[in-house]
Fold this protein.
Amino acid sequence: MTELTHVDVVFENGWIYTGTEDRPHRGGLAVHKGEVVSTDATVVAGLAQNARQRVDLDGRLIIPGFQDSHVHPPSAGIELLSCDLSHCETAEQTLAVIADYAAANPDLEWILGGGWSMGLYEGGTPTREMLDEIVPNRPVFLQNRDHHGAWFNSRAAELAAVDADTPDPRDGRLERKADGTPSGTAHEGAMGLFDHVRPSMTIDQAYDGLLAAQEHLLALGITAWQDAAVGKFMSRVDSLPAYVRALENGELKARVRGAQWWSREAGVAQLEPVLARRDEIGSKYDADHFSLNSVKVMVDGVAENFTAAMHDCYLDHHGNETENRGISFFDPKDMASFVSALDKNGMQVHFHALGDRAVTEALDAIDQARRDNGPSDNRHHLAHLEVIRSEDVARFSDLDAVANIQPLWACHDLQMDTLALPFLPEGAEDHHYPFGELVQHGARLAGGSDWPVTDANPIQGIHIAVNRVSPNSEYAPLGPEYQKLSLKVALDAYTQGSAFVNHLDHATGRLLPGYYADIAILNCNIFDLPVEQLNTARVTETWIAGERVFSE
């Protein structure tokens, strides 16, 4: 290969973290035809004079572009464009935002949106009367921040014919008053009781939402992501046409792995169409840009509404054991069977597994696939992992299963301390989001956000992964010291760890010659900050394949 004398871009006068060393080194980066040419300070300095573009870092830090291993961009973008409650910090503020949105949109037949915090309401379950007071004549249906429940008013219940005689579905429940009347909150599958009357997201809305979400994610230094549910799921329109339109219009800048939704009702019959969609997309688009090689399997619910699948029973408000161990949305034997079939056909399985029984069942399914098919490079991963039995922690490494962590959840807050920990067995906090234990037992980590459930900002996630407490919080850190991650481990999880999950590690996640020039530039060398101030770092520029896609 002829030695280059001219390159497209040189970044100089700063710090660079390639992902292969313990901390950044002083220097820069040379880029040509969308790929990294060199990170050697002497080589970069020699190429700078003839570079088509020179970028003065002025002491800033280049890192590999962040990758979010579990995110929902189209629906998150739609929430940004609708009644967005994610920023509300009190119940009063939440109601005020809903009232203002309804007043500003008098022609909307339904008030839709989401992002309200369960921790702001007693038991995490606001009532329909609260909504009736501000929007009495139009139906209101608003999903909560974790999207495992929704808040509805009386008009919505009337239109959906949801009343005291409505039975709870197998995969969810309605909160009820003493006489059985639905009180205003639907959990999990009970949200589907409104599907026949509430408007579905349109393809145009999904497209607008995707582009709005992409703009937001690029500003956070995120250059690739795994969409954790592509397809028609939980009453939402199939988002795949929105991605295809963005691809055809040249609007999809990020690299995306789509996890196709695995229906709870369709059974193994859906395997053939899942594979057909994967192959059709694979025949049309570069796999390094967009693919559908993953499948999303939601094993259980969430702890806050007692639907996360646990080995031990939940406690009641008095600390006594109940008979409730949460919900497994799939029979474990059936799940092991279809996971093995997916694995045999080269599909990655992306599990939602929050409770410790869900984790066991997901790992058992992977184990079955390995025994049926032998080892593979499918890179199955388990997301959320709020609680893991000690005997299951080491199985991640043994089964080559990736721990897909959402670090922003690993801290005390109102929701954690009022709706989750009090109803779990004594000592649960010590093993809550056990990131440190997973690393000690050789597990590979990937970093994600689950946005719009929580903030998509990787820097904020890294801060909590390292400190186990949110910035400027009055709470103590969550759990013992050994659950904290080092800065390097947390940063690598959000870069090369997620690149591995996304099957993009051959060309992204690190900054090496021949890799794509997918980078984020931070305003400072984050490794020089006190760990208590990691959250103060920010992304100033984002580049994908040597092209600037964001600048503050």
The radius of gyration is 23 Å.
